[in-house]
Amino acid sequence: MTQFTLIRPVLKVCSLILLVFGLMMTVPLLMAIIYHTGNTAAFSNAIALTVGLAAGGWLLSRSHRINLLTPRQMFLITTTSWVLISLTGALPFLLIPGFCDISDAVFESVSGLTTTGSTVLTGLDTMAHDILVWRSILQWVGGLGVIGMAVAILPFLKVGGMRLFQTESSDWSDKAMPRSRTMVTMIIYVYIILTFLCTLAFMFTGMDSFHAVNHAMTTISTGGYSTSDSSFAQFADLGSHWVAITFMILGALPFAIYVHFLVKRNWRVFNDQQIRGFLLTILIISIIVTLHLMSDAGIDLLHAFTYATFNLVSVITTTGFASGDYSQWGNLAVAAFFFAMFIGGCSGSTSGGIKIFRFQLLFMMMQESIVRAVHPRAMIRRYYNGRAVDDSIVLSAVTFVFIMLLSLVIITLLLAFTGLDLTTSLTGAATALMNVGPGLGDTIGPAGNFSTLPDSSKWILSVGMLLGRLEFMTVILVLTPTYWKS
Q1: Which PANTHER family does this entry report, sorted A to Z (predicted)?
Q2: Half-sphere exposure (CA, 13 Å, Cβ side) for 214?
């Protein structure tokens, strides 16, 4: 395969993605016109540049018909499309006169599209509606892209043990393509329906329509962007917190499960090993933090359980909302939230992190090692949700965790080299790679943001967010010389 043959279908697919993405900018453009915010020119120019770039790519590849994509092309499409929409997503921020520089614009766009939720913007409470809506759209679109990538692409590419979840949606043969399209289409419908239900639920708790729509988009996408500098602390009603808890969890469950439920009409599809482990983890840590708040801060049971569960679910699902500065809740809570950053939600969801199933596979390996130490000749069969787990899947999961830890060390050192303290460097690297949002400490903790960091730190974190969202290996393989050899 020549490099030209490799790139042409990639260019065509990326052009289509850019075209759709550019058209999404018409929503904040309309808001800029309606509310007379003065940002009409910025969004108009951003649309023109994005659609123009898409049209150019389409013209260069128009003679090529997309049939069967190879794994090499799918790796390149995944990485290239995320980089392109991250850069074009920064255009509205960059083109508004005096709003922010290129480092901040790219950081905000990458953070939105990767559903990380870290922000460099301040004054959100008085910010123009069109900018706030664009931030929410970035996360909503990013969340949908994450699901599509996790369900239809990563299992096929056998990244990080994801082959364990290979289904008809990740079969890209000519025979299976209609089923793949049906699966992806149904997931989009589910995503839209959950967003609509979340909006209604927020409005029922007293939110106005603008805040409800924005927070619904950033909740179901487990993104965490808010319309206020105080994040979810702006809402005093505990009901809104429980609505957010519910839909953050729903966004962190496998979306393929929802489709299977709609097809089979059987609640037993939710009796999934990964879902059980995810919910049990939330319950255990929530109880521990609740008891800690009750004993140390003297908070009553209802408020302690609500605050503990809300902030824990926000971190473990990698959403990034905060109802208070939990970095001030004491050492036990800080330790719990730090380790929760790495857990993540379920595969095939909008959440980031290592993912529950990889921890379950590692625990399975640990059990197997103990049994083999006692019974060296024991015949052990591994099963996950009734499916046999071979050595290649386990090795892939272990490789993923190793690369993640290595990336954590490298990015922590790079951030420290830019002048950041150890807490900010370590938790900044963790929150970027795991796509969580806030870190810990006074600077980038729940009560702070990333605006005061040096530009070099913002670029490092932007790369980290993309690396974590694309599951590491997807980016690494494209950057290796072997990938580009014929």
Answers
A1: TRK SYSTEM POTASSIUM UPTAKE PROTEIN, TRK SYSTEM POTASSIUM UPTAKE PROTEIN TRKG-RELATED
A2: 24
Q: What count of residues does the chain have?
A: 486
317 appears as a binding residue in the annotation: no
423 is in an annotated binding site: no
And the tokens for 196? 């609509």
Residue in the block written with tokens 């255990």? 284
For 109, the token pair is: 């766009």
Highest mean pLDDT, choosing among 3-7, 64-68, 234-238: 234-238
Q: Which stretches within 375-472 are classed as H helix?
A: 391-417, 422-433, 455-469
DSSP state of 63: T
Give buried/exposed letters for 322-361 (b at 16+ CB in 10 A, else e). Answer: bbbbbbebbeebbebbbebbbbbbbbbbbbbbbbbbbbbb
Does 431 belong to an annotated binding site? Answer: no
Residue 319 annotated as part of some ligand binding site = yes
Nearest 5 degrees, angle CA 106-CA 108-CA 88? 45
pLDDT digits (tens, 9 = 90+) for 340-398: 999 999 988 999 999 999 999 999 889 888 988 888 877 788 888 888 888 888 888 88
Tell me if 205 is assigned to a ligand binding site: no
DSSP string, 163-210: GGG--GGG--STTTHHHHHHHHHHHHHHHHHHHHHHHHHHHHTT--HH
Residue carrying structure tokens 């995944």: 78
Q: Tell how strand 387-388 and strand 383-384 pair up.
A: antiparallel
Tell me the C-alpha distance between 373 and 395, whole Å.
Answer: 20
Q: Could you give the CA distance from residue 267 to residue 257 in angstroms, rounded to a whole number?
A: 10
Mean pLDDT of 309-323: 96
Looking at residue 456, its amino acid is S
Largest CA distance in the chain: 75
Summary count for the chain: helices (H), strands (E): 20, 2
Ligand-binding annotation for 219, yes or no, is no
In whole angstroms, how large is the CA radius of gyration of the chain? 22
Q: Does residue 456 carry a pLDDT above 60?
A: yes
Question: 104 near 93, Cβ under 8 Å?
Answer: yes
Strand partners, 383: 388
Q: Is 227 annotated as a binding residue?
A: no
Q: What are phi and psi of 384, to 5 degrees?
A: -135, 115
